[in-house]
Amino acid sequence: ALAAAESARLAPAYTADGRRIAVLLNIAAPEDLAGLDPAICDGIGLVRTEFLFETSLGLPDEDTQYAVYRRILDWAQGRPVTIRTLDAGGDKPIKGLTIDGESNPFLGLRGIRLSLARPEVFRVQLRALSRAAVHGVLKVMLPMIAVPGEFDRAGVMLDAEFAALRAEGTACARPPLGIMIEVPAAALCAEDFDAAFYSIGSNDLTQYTMAAARDIGSVADLNDAGHPAVLTLIARTVEAARKLDVEVSLCGDAAADTRLTKALLATGLTSLSVAPVAVARLKAAIAKVGS
Ligand code: PEP
Ligand code: MG
């Protein structure tokens, strides 16, 4: 029985009616991959990089970041790896970086907004990512994007850092740049972005759509990713991605909620990203869809 469970975990995911669904991993640190066989997944859909910035050692330098990103790419053995740039603020305060005392940190200077406000910090991360990109299939994802101008500014900065590395003779590549869809404005206007891919962040998308914070227990009932309003925004994003012929995945906690698997796949999604512990459960739920 154990051997059967392990082979089910390693097998690629198909719905009962034969649709291939990519199952990717969410990780918050490279240690999350310890002892894991990369064959359980189709790649890594979300690397949260906040852990690098949460230490008491201050902000991580370029070499420190590069070493960590490279380790993750090495683990993936050629599978795609999506690394998200720093998503500080809101539920992820970082000492010395995020603003103390904002009246509503979830609506404040967080995610890409903070990175663009602190270019000296952001550039170091973009350089480390460009250097790591030669070691595998790296995709870089921007969090909390609301308007195309944010994506465009980040793209210009990535181009500049890549060009500077090349001019120095440092091994590097320009990774494709994509966006999280987690602000309702971005979901509603997804086709206005020139992004290489989308990844739907259902945690934030749900809280902003339902006006119910992800971390306030007394409104947890309202914080429902299965609400038709949230599912409509997800379907809307998937449709935009189809039209533009760009990849789309979903990496929020809803991907691991097997009560929602059927509804999520009904939006047209063919890629879900979950924590390693949820892989077997998700694959089993996918196999029941369409039966
Ligand atoms: C999300 O918002 O759904 C997401 C995946 O990002 P985080 O939970 O890190 O905000
Ligand atoms: Mg988020």
From TrEMBL:
It catalyses: L-histidyl-[protein] + phosphoenolpyruvate = N(pros)-phospho-L-histidyl-[protein] + pyruvate. GO terms for molecular function: kinase activity; metal ion binding; phosphoenolpyruvate-protein phosphotransferase activity. Residues 7-289 form the PEP-utilising enzyme C-terminal domain. Its EC number is 2.7.3.9. GO terms for cellular component: cytoplasm. Mg(2+) binds at E182, D204. It is an enzyme of class 2 (transferase). Its main location: cytoplasm. Phosphoenolpyruvate binds at R48, R84, N203, D204, R214. Keywords: Cytoplasm, Kinase, Magnesium, Metal-binding, Phosphotransferase system, Pyruvate, Sugar transport, Transferase, Transport. Its cofactor is Mg(2+). The active site is at C251. GO terms for biological process: phosphoenolpyruvate-dependent sugar phosphotransferase system. It is found in: Cytoplasm. The keyword Coiled coil does not apply. The keyword Transport applies. General (non sugar-specific) component of the phosphoenolpyruvate-dependent sugar phosphotransferase system (sugar PTS). This major carbohydrate active-transport system catalyzes the phosphorylation of incoming sugar substrates concomitantly with their translocation across the cell membrane. Enzyme I transfers the phosphoryl group from phosphoenolpyruvate (PEP) to the phosphoryl carrier protein (HPr). Belongs to the PEP-utilizing enzyme family. This is Phosphoenolpyruvate-protein phosphotransferase. The lineage of its organism: Bacteria, Pseudomonadati, Pseudomonadota, Alphaproteobacteria, Hyphomicrobiales. The chain holds residues 242 to 532 of 532 of the full protein.
